[in-house]
Design a protein that fits this description.
alpha/beta, eleven-stranded mixed β-sheet, 17 helices
């Protein structure tokens, strides 16, 4: 068993070997963020004597139970505020200097963990000889409560604790991953949804500079940050709900995890997330990227064709909605843009749920991804863009190529429990998974996703907007979302004027 024992900077770790892949789970990368460390930047973990057993996952970050996340394979049965742990998969703890991939999970900044069965790194390690790291980070009120304007210097970066946790995990990788057979000079960060949105922030986050070399953003970009003003307003609401005086913030350390989560569940979705706090994140990441903060980072970025379907298909508001109700839903979401949208809609057809989903997919996911891509391309950085078009047959096919569907294809974890509930069981899935899995491996290895079995995949440029469409028969299309993109570019100009 000695080859499962690794000497980290902080002490010895005993993992296990399963089917030729070594795993070390539940490794602490920071001190438990409890007591006086609640709402503070993470601190380096304590060292230990002897050999620490790391054969099971650490606790997940505090979060509410959410049906959609359970559907995505999220297990919160072991949950604790002491949650800053990571997991490693590798073919061997040797000096081979393998490419390293660090996964940042999604979940709207309030849910998820690095230990979901969907994120098992064994296939990447076995098939790609890549070292995979998955991490937990603080979520919701624990990770993104901006108290800087209310509590002063002591809380200056509290609104970005979750992002600072991710930076601490990347620092741990730099210091330790060589002992697990990984190359600290070839680190790719990859993530989906809030994980990809986190990566968009990390591309413009000063303390993350130099900690990674490539980035893969799945269904997320650099657009999802709050202004200090907005984040302070949310914090004010939460303090009032918790009956904590702004002059007595230390009382927050005495409240139970349950009290904090219950209060946070009352604010609208996506209210808690990264903040332009002027200290840890001095300005909007898109501005930093436009000025070259990530010009040395090679990027693979993409979205799913029907991202928004999962959010609207089960929305009771759409059930049996007549034309009047549909118009109301459009007006509620798009306001003054409805006439513009209608003018682009072919042959004056009535507004529909399908169009609603398409436009929200564009505005929330595809358009921000294209914006980030164009900022990077202008810096001369190589960027590859994809779109995932394979449609799931579950729920009568209503979900199509929805949000998060690509994850088990990327990780090649289609045979994990519960995955068939989301993807169905057709054998054709394996073919799509092998294409995506290999493309991600090649990108991590050498910064280029091209691989056998895929058509020649050109880098993205502003003339062609070449995009690889992943499906049973993958093809390259130029500017595949042109119609929605034109609507959204015009809409953005209208909103600015």
């Amino acid at each position: 068993m000695t080859n499962t024992i690794v000497e980290s900077v902080y002490g010895k770790l005993q993992g296990e070997q399963i089917n030729g892949v070594f795993t070390w789970k539940g490794i602490p990368y920071a001190k438990p963020p409890v007591g006086s460390l609640r709402f503070r930047a993470p601190e380096r973990p304590e060292s230990w004597e002897g050999i620490r057993d790391v054969c099971s996952f650490g606790p997940v970050a505090p979060q509410s139970q959410r049906e959609i996340m359970e559907f995505f394979g999220n297990d919160i049965s072991n949950m604790s505020e002491d949650c800053l742990y990571l997991n490693v998969w590798s073919k061997g703890a040797d000096d081979k200097k393998r490419p390293v991939m660090v996964w940042i999970h999604g979940g709207a900044f309030v849910s998820g963990s690095g230990s979901s069965s969907w994120y098992d790194g064994a296939s990447f390690a076995a098939q790609g000889d890549v070292v995979v790291v998955t991490i937990n980070y603080r979520l919701g009120i624990f990770g993104f409560l901006h108290l800087g304007e209310i509590g002063g210097e002591e809380y200056a970066t509290s609104g970005n604790c979750g992002i600072q946790d991710q930076v601490a995990a990347l620092q741990w990788v730099q210091e330790n991953i060589a002992a697990f057979g990984g190359d600290p000079n070839n680190v790719t960060i990859f993530g989906e949804s809030a994980g990809a949105m986190s990566i968009g922030v990390l591309l413009g986050f000063p303390s993350a500079q130099g900690l990674f070399h490539k980035a893969i953003l799945q269904s997320g970009a650099a657009a999802n940050v709050h202004s200090s003003e907005k984040a302070t307003k949310i914090a004010g609401h939460l303090l009032a709900t918790l009956q904590v005086e702004p002059t007595n913030l230390s009382k927050l350390e005495e409240l139970s995890v349950e009290q904090l989560i219950q209060a946070a569940d009352l604010v609208p979705p996506m209210s808690l997330g990264p903040v332009i706090d002027g200290v840890s994140l001095p300005r909007h990441p898109e501005e930093a990227i436009a000025d070259g903060s990530a010009k040395d980072i090679t990027i693979l970025i993409g979205t799913n064709k029907d991202e928004y379907n999962i959010f609207s298909v089960f929305d009771p508001e759409w059930k049996n909605a007549d034309e009047t109700k549909v118009t109301q839903l459009f007006e509620k979401t798009f306001g003054p843009l409805v006439p513009l949208i209608s003018s682009y809609h072919e042959g004056n057809q009535p507004l529909s749920q399908e169009l609603y989903n398409k436009l929200l997919t564009m505005s929330v996911f595809t358009y921000p991804a294209q914006r980030l891509t164009e900022l990077q391309v202008k810096q001369g950085a190589p960027v590859w863009m994809y779109r995932f078009d394979w449609e799931t047959p579950v729920f009568g096919g209503a979900l199509k190529s929805t949000h998060a569907l690509e994850i088990p294809f990327v990780f090649n974890t289609l045979d994990t429990p519960n995955t068939e509930n989301f993807t169905g069981s057709s054998p054709e899935r394996e073919f799509v998974a092998s294409q995506m899995h290999q493309a991600w491996i090649n990108f991590a290895r050498n910064g280029n996703p091209n691989s056998e079995g895929l058509p020649e995949w050109p880098q993205y440029n502003l003339n062609d907007r070449s995009t690889l469409i992943f499906n049973i028969e993958s093809v390259v299309e130029n500017d595949p979302n042109r119609k929605e993109r034109m609507i959204w570019e015009q809409a953005t100009m209208m909103m600015k004027s």
